[in-house]
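To illustrate the input format used throughout this study, we show a single complete record. The first block contains the structure-token representation of the backbone; no residue identities are included at this stage. The design step must infer an amino acid for every position from geometry alone.
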């Protein structure tokens, strides 16, 4: 038998009943967490409704954390870019942008201007030459 004291009131519960209650609470919290962490169709439609779009840009020439910092810093200054998430391991970036202010070609051009290839848009050669050694392709170091 389990005895709980809450606000000077003594509550006694059977151990089996307490375990059942704990399972219900655990399952409920797990479901709440799963629901709150998942992206819904409503959120996708909300992005579309406010004119924002999401695109994944391949970044085959990124090498390190400094590349990530350079791309995030440079692209976040562009009008219309809402957010950018660079994944070094996958060599890509997920960009949320306002479609009326910038488009995919503008995003690719901005990244290329920083010295990195973006999809099939080649890096600006002068910007690439100015990159730190760690940010250059192994054959160019």
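Output of the design step:
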């Amino acid at each position: 038998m389990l005895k709980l004291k809450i606000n000077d009131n003594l509550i006694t519960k059977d151990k089996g009943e307490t375990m059942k209650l704990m399972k219900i609470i655990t399952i409920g919290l797990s479901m709440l967490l799963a629901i709150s962490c998942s992206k819904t169709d409503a959120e996708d439609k909300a992005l579309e409704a406010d004119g924002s779009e999401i695109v994944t840009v391949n970044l085959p020439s990124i090498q390190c954390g400094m590349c990530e910092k350079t791309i995030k810093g440079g692209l976040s200054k562009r009008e219309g870019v809402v957010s950018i998430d660079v994944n070094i391991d996958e060599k890509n970036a997920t960009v949320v942008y306002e479609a009326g202010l910038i488009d995919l070609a503008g995003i690719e051009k901005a990244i290329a201007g920083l010295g990195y290839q973006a999809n099939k848009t080649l890096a600006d050669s002068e910007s690439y030459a100015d990159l730190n050694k760690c940010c250059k392709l192994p054959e160019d170091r």
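Structural context for interpreting the output: The longest strand covers residues 52-58. The radius of gyration is 25 Å.
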